[in-house]
Specification:
Rossmann fold, binds iron/sulfur cluster, 21 helices, 18% strand, eight-stranded parallel β-barrel, alpha/beta, binds adenosine-5'-diphosphate, FAD/NAD(P)-binding domain
């Protein structure tokens, strides 16, 4: 199909200083924890985005000197010439497809405790390092300032040698020294680098000018700047100092890359920022103050919104991190008039969580993300079927849908049986919870793909039994029958059932999602720590119930710290009037009374009254069918449980499992075989 002419504007080249981007699709720097530890994986990850049509593809933040090393994180590193060859892998992979390659140079200052280099960190002033480590940064001397300027220049020269077309100077996300110099809280200097805004901007101005002088004749110099910190007068605000900084530096960089700080605001989840273009109110002013091109982000997945951003003069280039992760081929699909094939980001931040856990990138929507080199997976290509065998997939949740779709892509004849009358499994139900609507995209993308395939037959309302399956005589069977929440309180805190729950009167999230009646005061016991407990609390509160949430953790939804949502969740529950009891476990339940105890001291017990008790503790696989079929295993060439039926986990894990099962069908007898390659340091 041909491109819709109304999107032509997205494919216009854009001049950025001495280089020209072939189109307006710009993958801004984003972490993937492949970086210097896994350079081949990094190169493959970025190269595929260039192949998918992104006109500019950047690597992640790259440390420029050991005095600001961000160990244990694995981002980029360009300390000296020995680091250059691995960057060359990345730039070659990007250039192969005609895109420009960019690198974000960073000096993290008081953001990093230098756990590897063991050099005392330094910052504008002597302040604690931004972690809970008992380490402080020292105040920089004039000599240190001169060093930081020189290190930027040396790293920029190495970047050019490595083949980069765009070199970034970075003042965003509250991660970089240059941004810290702007902030009065961090910069209490009395010399010409502190005090007035002009003084606080001086170092950035010098670094930008130095870098331009060093590499600006053939590399573009970009400036990544957070215009607002969403902290009101306690932080930088776009209407005042943010605007003034842009005014002071307006024409110095070749490109403005603008966003909001900190990372939790920039990469806000759909639960808290449901709309595309949510940063526009904070960044739209930039173009009025500079003649240089401006790139910005806002979880853009719709071509119409992108065109509107350009036509209304908000942005010149459409920046994306997460939309490029969920669909590395997004630009190509717009170009080819295949909008319905775009795998839209759901704004869940599983990708971010991986980085925060210092693990390689993964994505809920795109199971190939991070596997491009390791398993040789391509987001748009999959090996053809090796036989004409049929495959039966039982259960149409995320795992079953992904498996059926990919098996159909391979050319297998697929039968997809689903017990209920709807596709989607858990995402169809969970997307009804407050802030979770975008999860339905996991279903919609796959359903849309499957419905176009002549080789998938869908049977809804089909609850298959062991005998049904045996009688079908289909040689390959994937069982994706999901999981259910426990009703007995067993979870992370309790290995054995909680006393008083034997009569089954407590509700589980499954009951709540199925519309069970909720009355009066609701007590939620959250020993799961992801989104379920807090979204049920929110929903019950929105329905007018008095709600008390009890958790053994010391904060609400503790795992969402990794998805950058935790503080927002706790603040929202407080603002809704949810009573929160942290560091407490459920000991016993009796006639509308729960006995709870402080987890640090059993002596601190209390009674909490309720009308409805909801237990969000842990899940059990719905694997009865799988276990029964194992008795007849010799009748099948493949018999495998996938997704939550295999082991309850995230939606991302279920999609991955479905994908993996489809990709490796008939390729290996042993699912634990070393199907992937590893990067092993050469001992030279
Ligand atoms: P996952 O996240 O692993 O994909 P879900 O719980 O989202 O798991 O989806 C499992 C799906 O399997 C549900 O839609 C459920 O109705 C369906 N299912 C469960 N048992 C059967 C069965 N015996 N036959 C057909 N479908 C089933
Ligand atoms: Fe989007 Fe979630 Fe994928 Fe990240 S993990 S790119 S937020 S769908």
């Amino acid at each position: 199909m041909a491109r819709d002419p109304s999107y032509d504007i997205l494919f216009e080249p854009v001049k950025i200083g001495p280089v020209t981007a072939p189109n307006r699709f710009f993958q801004v720097p984003h972490c993937n924890t492949l970086g210097y530890g896994r350079p081949r994986a990094e190169a493959a990850n970025r190269g595929i985005k260039a192949e998918g049509g992104w006109g500019v593809v950047c690597t992640q933040e790259a440390e420029i000197h050991p005095s600001a090393d961000i160990t244990p994180s694995f981002e980029g590193r360009i300390w000296d010439d020995r680091d250059t060859p691995q960057h060359r892998l990345m730039t070659d992979a990007v250039h192969e497809h005609g895109a420009l390659a960019g690198i974000e140079l960073v000096y993290n200052g008081s953001h990093t405790p230098n756990l590897y280099s063991r050099i005392a960190p330094m910052s504008a002033s002597a302040i604690p390092v931004h972690t809970d480590l008992p380490i402080q940064a020292r105040a920089m001397s004039k000599r240190d300032i001169a060093d930081v300027r020189r290190w930027h220049v040396e790293a920029a020269k190495r970047s050019r040698q490595a083949g980069y077309d765009i070199v970034y100077v970075y003042a965003g996300h509250n991660l970089s020294l240059l941004q810290h110099f702007f902030k009065k809280q961090y910069n209490q200097r009395s010399d010409e680098y502190g005090g007035s805004l002009e003084n606080r901007v001086r170092l950035t101005k010098e670094v930008l000018t130095d870098v331009k002088e060093a590499v600006g004749h053939d590399c573009a110099v970009a400036f990544r700047f957070a215009t607002d910190e969403l902290m009101g007068p306690d932080g930088l605000q776009w209407e005042s100092e943010g605007r003034d900084i842009v005014g002071m530096l307006a024409e110095i960089p070749d490109l403005w890359d603008v966003n909001i700080s900190d990372w939790a605001n920039d990469s806000a989840t759909a639960r808290f920022e449901p709309n595309e273009g949510f940063q526009e109110p904070y960044t739209a002013f930039v173009k009025t103050l500079t003649s240089k091109p401006v790139v910005g982000v806002g979880r853009f997945t719709s071509a119409d919104t992108m065109v509107s951003q350009i036509k209304r003069g908000v942005l010149d280039l459409i920046g994306a991190a997460r939309p490029s992760i969920a669909d590395p081929f997004l630009p190509r699909k717009i170009d080819e008039g295949r909008l319905e094939d775009i795998r839209e980001c759901i704004g869940c931040n599983i990708c971010v969580a991986q980085d925060n856990m210092v693990a390689p990138i993964r994505c809920t929507q795109n199971p190939t993300q991070g596997e491009e080199w390791k398993q040789g997976w391509h987001p748009e290509k999959i090996e053809a079927a090796v036989s004409e065998d049929q495959v039966l997939v039982i259960g149409a949740g995320p795992a079953g849908l992904e498996a059926a779709m990919q098996l159909a892509n391979r050319g297998y004849q697929v039968t997809l049986a689903e017990a209920t009358d709807t596709l989607g499994g858990r995402v169809s139900r969970e997307s009804e919870l407050p802030g979770m609507a975008s999860y339905v995209r996991v279903r919609d993308y796959r359903e849309n793909q499957i419905r176009q395939k002549p080789n998938v037959e869908i049977y809804l309302g089909n609850h298959l039994s062991t005998n049904d399956i045996i009688e079908l005589q289909i040689p390959h069977v994937l069982i994706a029958t999901g999981s259910h929440w426990r009703r007995d309180g067993v979870g992370r805190q309790h290995a054995f059932p909680v006393a008083g729950l034997e009569n089954g009167s407590a509700l589980t999230p499954d009951d709540v999602l199925a519309g069970a009646e909720i009355s009066g005061r609701v007590l939620i016991y959250d020993d799961d720590h992801y989104f379920m407990g807090s979204t049920i609390a929110e929903r019950c509160r929105n329905q007018g119930h008095e709600v008390c949430l009890v958790t053994p953790e010391s904060i609400v939804s503790s795992w969402t710290h990794y998805t950058l949502e935790q503080e927002k969740i706790q603040a929202r529950l407080l603002s809704l009037g949810v009573e929160i009891m942290v560091s407490h476990e459920l000991l016993e339940v009796e006639a509308g009374q729960a006995t709870i105890a402080n987890i640090y001291s059993d002596e601190h017990r209390q009674q909490v009254g309720f009308d409805t008790l909801v237990l969000v503790t842990s899940r059990q696989s719905d694997d009865v069918l799988y276990q029964a079929l194992l008795e007849h295993e010799n009748r099948f060439k493949t018999l495998r449980a996938i997704g939550d039926c295999n082991a309850p986990g995230t939606v991302a894990a279920a999609v991955y499992d479905g994908h993996s099962a489809a990709r490796y069908l008939e390729s290996s007898e042993d699912i634990y075989a070393p199907l992937f390659v590893r990067e092993i340091p050469a001992l030279d």
